[in-house]
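Batch manifest line 260
LIGAND: zinc ion
JOB: complex structure
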Amino acid sequence: MRKFRIVVLTIFVILIGGCSNLRGTKLLVPEHFGLIKIDQDLYIEDGVDEATKEKLIDTITKSEEKILSAYGSVQSHPIVHACITEECYSSLGGMGSTAKVYGNHILLSPRGLNWHFLAHEWSHAEIRTRLTFGAWRRLPQWFDEGLAVAISEAPEHSEAHWRFLIASNVQRPTREELLTYKSLRQWLDAVHRYGETQNMARKANGEPEVRPVYSAAGHEVRPWLSKYGGHGLIEMINRLNNGEDFEAVYNSANQVRVDD
Ligand SMILES: [Zn+2]
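JOB STATUS: finished
ARTIFACT:
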């Protein structure tokens, strides 16, 4: 059974992101890679202190509440893997990011041990659970990310950050450009192009971090979600599962939008 799960997850990570994500298959046997089980769906790197353990359990509770309030119920039950060192995180495939989701497995870096990052990845897991595979493949990356940004309320991707980018004249995608980021590859290329992968260097130089692409997606989806709420989201998921095109569903619902 374990071998079967490893094969399924391996195929999944190849479909979503290529060979670098193959390290994520280690999450199926976390005890072999320095993580210990501390709760039913929670693994933490060995050596963690009690305070961090408690904080993580609270983090899971708060993240689940956010998913519940956005979707109306929670259908996904991801297994959370938390690293307390960067070495652990990169060895499990997390290079260059703060948190990642592999199917039903969420991996958190030491920088991502808070409910904002967990709720973000959990939103990806929740919508994937609710969509058929075909509908999930047709869901544009910008919407998946924008929804995760809106639900997770991360200060890094907030409306305040969006206004800071405008005030600082930082380059950011137009709405028209954002809506072209349909595949994961297009999304990652834009994240790289707009410099979001350079934030560690900015921080080291004492410069402010910038997240123009994630913030643009949040800026697009946040008003949609606050207008249509959980009912609108479930309606969208049902229509996508019934074979409708994303653009038709989004545009028919998206009559009101808050501009810059
Ligand atoms: Zn994401």
